[in-house]
Amino acid sequence: MEPVEVLPIVALLAIVTVEFGGHALLKFVTTDHDRLGELRERFFRAGHAHAGVLLVLTLAYFLYLPRARYSDGLEWTFGTVLLGGVLAQSGGFFVHLGIGRAGARSFGTTLTRIGALAIAVALVALAAGLIREL
């Protein structure tokens, strides 16, 4: 199977998990508001929002990836780096929600930064491939 046939399916299924997270967040802020606390609520919102927006970005990415004319191996690599970066960046917010403290770094904030870097690598790789094909 081609990477641009499989990876968008992964992204679409991941969007379903974001929808479930939205339901959970709505429940917390409407019925159990005090349960999370301000810091955790902020990180829950940030993780949820980043996941949703970045997963939609992946769908656009996979439309353009074949135009860069990379080998299947590179398409798998860049697509996996992008999806991994999205999961790491948004997941880092949730990790910090669980273990972090206000005003302090944690493994979650490091994971968020690593995810952002992975997303940037994948986007630059796609841009380079598209420029090469002009």
Automatic annotation (TrEMBL):
Residue ranges spanning the membrane: these are 6-26, 47-64, 76-99, 111-131
Keywords assigned: Membrane, Transmembrane, Transmembrane helix
**Highest rank taxon of the organism:** Bacteria
The protein's name: Integral membrane protein
